[in-house]
Amino acid sequence: MLSVTNLIYAILPDNNVYVKQCGDLLSNEKFKTGISSPLFLRLFGIFSSAKNEWDKGLLNKFEYIIAGATFDNFLDHATQYHKGNMKTEAGVLASAVLEDTMKKIAKKNNVPAESLTLDPLIDKLVTADVFKKEYAKRLKSYAGFRNCALHANWEQLDIRDIGDLISGIRDLIERYL
User: Fold this and answer.
1) Domain boundaries, position 130
2) Do 71 and 46 belong together in one domain?
3) Do residues 90 and 78 touch, judged by C-beta distance below 8 A?
């Protein structure tokens, strides 16, 4: 019960009804002799209902909210490196976020992404009507920055390129995750 309650707290936002109900039930319990049967049944009802919604895809969007928040944290670090004129560090961090973001967007839109590099993945997302062709061109330029960063072709990158990459990834996350 504790593990499932912890999972609900971890994957759902604080204002979610399941989080509130679990909190209310647990805060009123004394736990002197273990968990009571009525509490167990109430919590089990909450967990069953949450699982049912998860299975229907109603809670899946939280996966992308959590991913977006995590990516935002990495991008904050990349931004600090960028401000410090450290294009290598900023470029590597931003590149990792770009690749993972693209894979999450593909998953969210049921587009197979296994073993695809970024350019073909972007093309698949255009075909699936996730991205417009004009936006895909911009994403492919970011993929080019990513390739330079991850293959240590630093002479092909300017610190402004990394700034564009970071800004573009933030826009991508806001629009599609």
Assistant:
1) 61-176
2) no
3) yes
Answering whether pTM is above 0.90, one says: no
Amino acid at 152: A
Q: Do 70 and 139 belong together in one domain?
A: yes
Check whether residue 16 and residue 70 sit in a common domain: no
Please report which residue ranges of the chain form alpha helices under DSSP H. 2-11, 17-27, 37-55, 61-83, 87-108, 118-127, 133-150, 159-176
Q: Are residues 27 and 75 in the same domain?
A: no
Phi and psi, residue 66, nearest 5°: -65, -45
The pLDDT tens digits of the residues spanning 82-119 come to 999 999 899 988 998 898 889 989 988 889 988 899 99
- 3-state secondary structure (DSSP) of residue 62: helix
3-state secondary structure 81-92: HHHCCCHHHHHH
115, two tokens: 């073993």
